[in-house]
Design a protein that fits this description.
The protein is α/β, with parallel strands linked by helices. The protein has two domains: 123 residues, Lyase, Ornithine Decarboxylase, Chain A, domain 1 (Beta Barrel), CATH 2.40.37; 250 residues, Alanine racemase (TIM Barrel). It has eleven helices and 17 strands. The strands form two sheets. Strands 1, 11, 12, 13, 14, 15, 16 and 17 form an eight-stranded mixed β-sheet that branches. An eight-stranded parallel barrel has the order 2-3-4-5-6-8-9-10, surrounded by four helices. The protein is elongated, with a radius of gyration of 22 Å. The structure holds pyridoxal-5'-phosphate (PLP). Pyridoxal-5'-phosphate binds next to helix 10.
Length: 384
C-alpha cells in the first residue's frame, strides 16, 4: 500500500513521528456511531488508547463520551470539549485529587473497584455536600483468551470486585449516604478478536442481574467496557473493526431490564488502525548470521512489541527492490528493542522510510523519554 502514504511529503519530515489517517478515523467513528445507534447504545471512547488533542477533538465531534482512568485523562477530555455528563472514571487506584476533580466537574459516573475506594469517594463527596454517582466494577470471571498482560476479567486480576464479594459491598453501600449506585461496569480485557467471550459476559451479567433483582437492586446503567480487537495482520483488508457484529452479540445475548441504558468503552478499535509510526533506516547492519535494519524509532516511540510481543505490520515505503530478510530493531540500549525478527522487506538501504502499521492505539500515548530521547511528533493526513 505504498500509494496509501504520501511518501514524498513524509520523506521531508524529521523522523520518527506518528502519522494519522484522519479520513480513516472519521469513517471508523461514523461506523461506530451508526452501528451503536441501532440499539441506542452509549459509547465512551477510552482516552488511554490515544489522547492526542486532535484525535480527541475528532472523537468528541462525532458525539462520543469519554472513559478516563486518571485525573489527567479527565482534564484531557475536558480540554477537548467532552461534556462532564459523558465522562466515566475507572481505575483501581484513584488518588484523592482525582476523585475531587471528578466531583468538582460533576462527571457522569465513578466506576468503583473496591470497598476501600467506595468509602473514600463517599467521604470526599460528603465534604463537598455532593452525592457521587457510582457504578460497581464487577469482575465477571470470564476468560478473554487474550495476552495475559491484557486480560482483566479473571478472579486473580487486580481489577474489579469479585462475584463472591458483591453482597458484602452492597451491604456496605447501604450505610453510605454520599454515593448513589447507578450502574454496573465490566471490562474483560483487550484486543479480543474472538467475540465469544463477549457472549459469555452477557450470560454472566444476565445471571448477576437476576441475583441482584432478588435484593431489589436494578440499576439504570450497564457498562460493558471495551476490548474489541483490531486486525494487526491485515490492516489494509480490515481497516475498520466489525462493530456491527460486536453490538449484535450484546443485543442478542444481553437481557436488559426495562429502560436500562447500555454503555461501551472502546479504545483500540476506534483509533488503532488510523495511526502509523514513521521511521527512517539509520543503518543496515550485516551480522554474521542475520541482517538488521536499524531504525531511528525504538520502544520509546512504540513499546507494544517489547511489552506484549505485539505484531505490527512493517513496510519499507521507499524501496521497490526484491525482498530480503531482516530483523527490524531500534536504537535503544535494550535487547527487547526489537520490532520484528526475520521478516521479508524490499531491499533496504540507509535513509529508507519504514512504516509500522496499526499503531494508533497504545502507541504515541505510551511514548517515553528513556535514553533522553525526544517525544515523537504527530502529523495528520488532513493537515499535511
Ligand atoms: C483499557 C480500558 C478500556 C479500553 O480497552 P480497549 O481494549 O482499548 O477497547 C475500556 N475500559 C476500561 C475500564 C479500560 O481499562
Amino acid at each position: 500500500m505504498k500509494d496509501y502514504f504520501p511518501v514524498d511529503k513524509l520523506k521531508t519530515l524529521e523522523t520518527p513521528f506518528y502519522y494519522y489517517d484522519m479520513d480513516l478515523l472519521r469513517k471508523t467513528l461514523e461506523t461506530v456511531v451508526s452501528e451503536s445507534k441501532k440499539y441506542d447504545y452509549h459509547i465512551h471512547y477510552a482516552i488511554k488508547a490515544n489522547a492526542n488533542p486532535r484525535i480527541l477533538s475528532a472523537i468528541r465531534e462525532s458525539g462520543l463520551g469519554a472513559d478516563c482512568v486518571s485525573g489527567g485523562e479527565i482534564q484531557a477530555a475536558l480540554n477537548a470539549g467532552f461534556s462532564p455528563t459523558k465522562i466515566v472514571f475507572a481505575g483501581v487506584g484513584k488518588a484523592d485529587w482525582e476523585i475531587n476533580l471528578g466531583l468538582d466537574k460533576d462527571i457522569f459516573c465513578f466506576n468503583v473497584e473496591s470497598v476501600a475506594e467506595l468509602e473514600i469517594i463517599n467521604e470526599l463527596a460528603q465534604q463537598k455536600g455532593k452525592k457521587a454517582r457510582i457504578a460497581l466494577r464487577i469482575n465477571p470471571e470470564v476468560n478473554a483468551n487474550t495476552h495475559h498482560h491484557i486480560t482483566t476479567g479473571m478472579k486473580e486480576n487486580k481489577f474489579g470486585i469479585n462475584l463472591d464479594q458483591i453482597d458484602s459491598v452492597l451491604d456496605k453501600l447501604e450505610t453510605l449516604n454520599s454515593v448513589q449506585l447507578i450502574g454496573l461496569h465490566f471490562h474483560i480485557g483487550s484486543q479480543l478478536t474472538d467475540l465469544h467471550p463477549f457472549q459469555a459476559l452477557c450470560t454472566r451479567v444476565n445471571e448477576l442481574q437476576q441475583n441482584l433483582a432478588k435484593r431489589k437492586i436494578i440499576v439504570e446503567h450497564i457498562n460493558f467496557g471495551g476490548g474489541l480487537g483490531i486486525d494487526y495482520q491485515y490492516p489494509n483488508q480490515n481497516p475498520i473493526p466489525d462493530f456491527k457484529e460486536y453490538f449484535r452479540i450484546f443485543h442478542k445475548h444481553f437481557k436488559p431490564f426495562p429502560n436500562q441504558q447500555i454503555h461501551f468503552e472502546p479504545g483500540r478499535s476506534i483509533v488503532g488502525q488510523c495511526g502509523n509510526l514513521i521511521s527512517k533506516v539509520l543503518y543496515v547492519k550485516i551480522g554474521s548470521v542475520k541482517k538488521f535494519a536499524i531504525l531511528d524509532a525504538g520502544f520509546t516511540e512504540l513499546i507494544r512489541p517489547a511489552l506484549y510481543d505485539a505484531y505490527h505490520q512493517i513496510e519499507n515505503i521507499t524501496s521497490e527492490e526484491p525482498k530480503e530478510t531482516y530483523d527490524v530493531v531500534g536504537p535503544i540500549c535494550e535487547s527487547s528493542d526489537t520490532f520484528a525478527k526475520q521478516i521479508d522487506l524490499n531491499k533496504t538501504r540507509r535513509g529508507d522510510i519504514f512504516v509500522l502499521r496499526s499503531a494508533g492505539a497504545y502507541g504515541e500515548i505510551m511514548a517515553s523519554q528513556y535514553n533522553c530521547r525526544k517525544l515523537p511528533k504527530a502529523y495528520f493526513s488532513d493537515l499535511l
